[in-house]
Amino acid sequence: MYVATDCIVFGYDSNDLKLLLFQRKLSPFKGEWSLIGTFVHLDESIAVAAERVLEQTTGLTDIFMEQTLAYGDVKRDPGYRCISIAKYALIRLDEHDKKSVEQYGAKWFSLDDLPPMILDHQQMINDALDMLKEKAKKQPVGFELLPKKFTLPQLQRLYELIYQKEIDSRNFRKKVLSLNILIKLEEKDKSNSKKGAFLYKFNSRKYNQYFTNGFNFDT
Length: 219
Prior knowledge:
The chain has 219 residues and is α+β, with helices and mostly antiparallel strands. It has 6 helices and 9 strands. The longest helix is centred in the middle third of the chain and has 18 residues. It is elongated.
């Protein structure tokens, strides 16, 4: 029996939430799309195996990943008996990351336009999304994903992408401002209108406090 790890890497680029996939080069399933995965070597931990395969197949390094679930259905892999431990991450996606992974044969796909997946990888993705949604309800997100200065619509867009649904802007504004996690700046972003929208930044002390102790941010 083998033990493997599969990496569900979500990338946020301010307008969309994407997923990193790899087109298999070897049989079985040659040419089909899958998550980034590997067998765990006898002399390494699951975390180290995930770091290794990400660097080898995408060039990405220093990505903190959280464990989701174990997948051990007897018939999940037709080639051999294999249990897979899935891990996921949400990272800020920039042009460097987009170009870098393509050199390795990987590709970022919008969650709304995923290709058919091999094995039980679609289930792994669905489970990771559910865990990401639950995490966003209990811990703040955005500190490492948004620009240092951002508008409330930009923050709302991030939550909408995570929750995979539209959020009422008035309720969102009221909820997020009540947490005192944001600092309103005198500057405005006028890229979308002459009137502009006020810019905010995170109160790092409050952010870290909520991240440690949790909160209730159910939309």
